[in-house]
Amino acid sequence: MGDVAAHMLPFAGTHYCVVFICNLDEYYNSWEKMISAGAKQIFPAHGEPFPVDKLAGNIHKNKSENLVFY
């Protein structure tokens, strides 16, 4: 799940999210799985590691109109 969350380009609004996505529901289901599995730290494929509470605090804040679907 390395690309399910990123921590880069904060000026572009990409804190704890990715920019390109196929299915927003599957994307957030991945976040929920990591949170419910008891993850403590997220090690994204892009950007610095961050605590899982940052992911939980940002769940569903990323809206489809702000993402590029492919």
Account of the 3D structure:
This protein has 70 residues and is α+β, with helices and mostly antiparallel strands. It has a domain at 1-39. It contains two helices and four strands. It has helices at 24-36, 52-57; strands spanning 20-21, 41-42, 50-51, 68-69. The strands form two sheets. It has a two-stranded parallel ribbon with strand order 1-4. A two-stranded antiparallel sheet has the order 2-3. β2 and β3 form a beta hairpin. The longest helix has 13 residues, at 24-36. The model has no long low-confidence stretch (mean pLDDT 75).
Features:
11% strand, 27% helix, single chain, alpha+beta, two-stranded parallel ribbon, 70 residues, two-stranded antiparallel sheet, 2 helices
At a glance:
With 70 residues, the chain is α+β, with helices and mostly antiparallel strands. 27% of the residues lie in helices and 11% in strands. It has a domain at 1-39.
